Amino acid sequence: MQQQAEMDFGVFATAAANHARRRHLPPAPDADGLFDADGVAVICGRRQCHFEPACDLFGHVQFKETGVPLTAIGPGKWDPVAVLSACTMAKGSRVYGVDYDKVTPTNPGGVDEIRIARVVGADGIRPYLSKTGRYFEAAYGVWAPVERPLETEQGFRETFLVSAGKPTWAFRKLFEGFALRGDEHHRFTGDYRVRRALRALEDAGLMLIELGPRGGMATARCKWTARAYLAPARLNPDDEAAMEMLA
Predict the structure, then answer these.
(1) How many Cα atoms are found within 13 Å in the side-chain-facing hemisphere of 135?
(2) At how many degrees (to 10) do helices 169-179 and 113-122 cross?
């Protein structure tokens, strides 16, 4: 808890956060992706909130005059999604969950899309559309706001309304930012929603962000951690034994 009292977390809300972030790296989760009380305090402090643990299982997240209770999933083990949700609710913002009946994850590049969506939604960024008609979508997947004359500006001849449950623009750009460039520099960090989502994923242990020499996110190198990927498919014990005999 001493680290939280000494750090000036206000600098994390600015573009010139590189100096403080280099001195105070994000907390590292354990093997199960969970954090101890010190890690929770750092995550909350990056959002100008204060974490006060009452015991190994209960605590409070405080933002100004608003407090939100926080419960661990085990003694001294705190889920980052619950921590981010508590900070978001303490600030009076909305937490976006995942409607599993409407969402069909594509897991681009083998990453766990649902896990990423839960982290992003807990930090107050909408990962999936909640209703039909907000965007048009071309046949090959390019989206634009409804008011843009797609056929005139981009030559699209066939568009249709996007249904609820499709990824929002900002959420899709989390994945496309790597695919459209050959390096680890994320292409769409100019959008504040993308930058905010990337930082939330970094705090949750799903993203590694190395800021550039001038600080900020424009020249940062972003990389998914191993925890962000889907676990490899495992055979049942009988099949594994058969594969070993074949080998």
Answers:
(1) 18
(2) 130
Residues 6+ apart with CB under 8 A from 186: 177, 178, 194, 198, 217, 220, 222
3-state DSSP helix/strand/coil percent for the chain, to nearest 5? 35, 15, 45
Q: How many CA atoms lie within 13 A of 138 on its CB side?
A: 14
Distance CA 69, CA 144 (A): 39
pLDDT of residue 227: 93
Q: What is the DSSP letter of 25?
A: P
- Amino acid identity, position 61: V
pLDDT per position as a tens digit, 106-161 = 999 899 999 999 999 999 999 998 877 655 555 444 444 444 554 445 545 455 56
Handedness of CA 102, 170, 11, 228 (dihedral sign): positive
Report helix, strand or coil for 130. coil
Residues in the chain where the model's pLDDT stays below 70: 1-24, 133-161, 179-183, 214-216, 233-247
Tell me if 9 sits within 8 A of 44, measured CB to CB. Answer: no
Three-class DSSP category at 193? helix
| pLDDT in the model for residue 71 | 95
